[in-house]
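Can anyone check this?
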Amino acid sequence: MLKKNYTEVSEFVFLGLSTSRKFQHFFLSFSIIFYVAIVLGNTLIVFTLAFDSHLHSPMYFLLGNLALIDLCLSTLTVPKMISDLSSGHNTISFQGCVFQIFVLHVLGASEMVLLVAMAWDRYVAICKPLHYLTIMSPRMCLILLSGAWVIGFLHSVAQLAFIIKLSFCGPNEIDSFYCDLPQFIKLACIDPKKMQFMVTANSGFISMSTFFLLIISYIVILFIVRKHSSSGDLSKALSTLSAHISVVVLFFAPCIFVYMWPFPTVPVDKFLAILDFMITPILNPAIYTLRNKDMKVAMRRLISQLFNMRKSS
């Protein structure tokens, strides 16, 4: 069956965000600026956390992995979109499309679980500070990270098992700038509504469940801080949590929309996807790290060391 799929449809054509050349030039400039910022910001964070011994703690370990996933998630789709916009060659092979769907869901689901792990880390730090390093031991951090990747991998494999059985014999135009399940299923030689339950039950469930877990955890943390802290501490916690919740909503809203209603009549999903591929990968570093005093000091220290090494050489 898989060989038959490859001979029937060898490639797909992306329709992109717009057919207007004026808007295409705007999206090209927008994508280049944001992608450069994503690469520089997240790479700086990963290197800072890796090489600064002062930041080798559970919170920063999880933050570093979040930055790495954000960088990979953006790199999976944005460079291809930039290439398509600049060259006008908007095609992707069948194998490339399946690979993009697979990696997209591994990274996306892993990030969702990792965000829950980060919320758990904050809960332990605030509610059980005396036992924090005991509970969030290096072993526990590795278990949480491994769990995130395993869940992401299993989630993606479960969907891949469905899509490799599909046959494609008709149109090959994808009304988006990347491959994902809803657009992919639409082009199959079946009624897409028959596959709607699979998409909703798998991707929709993991999106909704992790989103509500995060919101509940933030409410619990805020309630505990309010109960045991002064008004100044409460104000600081509220400011931090509101920023975290904003990023969570921006990340999860497109996922919930796309996978709970996988076949909308209006193609707004491709515009919502910009939030996940270009906006949250910039906001995550800004919210989770650049507002952190220790992180800013460590970044300055790393940049200073790099400049000194360059001067000495």
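Reply from J.R.: I decoded it. Residues 307 and 313 are 10 Å apart (CA to CA).
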